[in-house]
Amino acid sequence: MLKVPDHQVAGHQAGDGKLGSLIDDSGRFYKPLQGDERGSREVTFYTSFSSNTRIPDHIRRFFPVFYGTQLIEASDGSGLLPHLVLQDLVSGRLNPSIMDIKIGSRTWAPQASNDYIEKCLKKDRETSSLPLGFRISGLQIYVSKELGFWKPERTSFQRLSADNVRLVLRKFVSSNTSAESDSEPDCSFASIVYGGSTGILAQLLELKSWFEDQTIYHFYSCSVLLTYEKELALKGRIPGAEFKLIDFAHVVEGGGVIDHNFLGGLCSLIKFISEILTTPDECTSKASPKDSGENRLWSGNANNE
Ligand SMILES: O=P(O)(O)O[C@@H]1[C@@H](OP(=O)(O)O)[C@H](OP(=O)(O)O)[C@H](O)[C@H](OP(=O)(O)O)[C@H]1OP(=O)(O)O
Ligand SMILES: Nc1ncnc2c1ncn2[C@@H]1O[C@H](COP(=O)(O)OP(=O)(O)O)[C@@H](O)[C@H]1O
């Protein structure tokens, strides 16, 4: 039985007659193929990637498992439509905190149409993509059993200044984050989520070393999806912090050239996360939302889902 995912934080979302991804009970995520070249590009990427023997296993683990494509009933009621069948990255998680971070200061491939480039350029300029090399594209943070998740409006965190992006990255790993609270994030879980030999930073550094060498693909508009279980962290258990790369609708061949757009964005994200680990107490007194007019971020409601 297919259903709308409980924990999708960005992208095209199913429900209310709209076309979006679905999940089943066995841990599979069904993403509808967009009718234009975006759908075929993503299938081409997954097909090529899954059979490419030059991809080391320690890098392959950063990508969802691909199970091919399948014709299923689309969520918008339009009938049978081909879907990518992928590993559901949050299957088995109870209350995952999730952040979708779109990497690269440029989100369009060189082959894109002028109209599409113009649309993307506008978004890249208006968000943190251009200045920082990445933008937070989707977010939910588990608060508590009573309050559920803090899932602020998507537009509220895509255009943040560097200081406020830093603040969100801190809130993501804090025990005192909620819709109501604007207290300084305590970064309680920074060391077990971002840090350590198997934490997010170590994983990102491993991915970076591959990007310093690989010239097979250029990953425009692709995201890293960070997940962990705050409840486990609260109980002093390993919170299962990990990331996977997602959204390959704009991946093109690398043509023997380094993907400097993705690599640059990745280095920038790594720098932000490393600084949180080296200066966990230095919370963002300079980044008052009230000063920067970004109050909307802090007024989002917690969603009990
Ligand atoms: O349709 P929009 O304006 O919401 O833009 C979509 C993006 O939403 P956002 O910029 O985050 O608001 C959306 O971004 P997210 O996946 O939500 O981060 C995608 O970039 C989507 O493109 P595609 O399906 O991957 O080609 C984008 O769709 P297209 O621009 O490709 O239609
Ligand atoms: N394999 C997956 N497993 C679980 N959730 C996923 C998976 N792929 C994507 N998602 C969820 O869907 C959102 C949008 O995914 P994306 O591939 O970017 O779709 P779109 O092309 O519609 O933007 C992500 O932010 C994430 O929450």
From TrEMBL:
GO terms for molecular function: ATP binding; kinase activity. Its EC number is 2.7.1.140, 2.7.1.151. It comes from the Eukaryota. The keyword Ubl conjugation does not apply. Belongs to the inositol phosphokinase (IPK) family. Keywords: ATP-binding, Kinase, Nucleotide-binding, Transferase. This is Inositol polyphosphate multikinase. Inositol phosphate kinase with a broad substrate specificity. Residues 283-305 are annotated as: Disordered. It catalyses: 1D-myo-inositol 1,3,4,6-tetrakisphosphate + ATP = 1D-myo-inositol 1,3,4,5,6-pentakisphosphate + ADP + H(+); 1D-myo-inositol 1,4,5-trisphosphate + 2 ATP = 1D-myo-inositol 1,3,4,5,6-pentakisphosphate + 2 ADP + 2 H(+). Gene3D superfamilies: Inositol polyphosphate kinase (3.30.470.160). Pfam families: IPK.
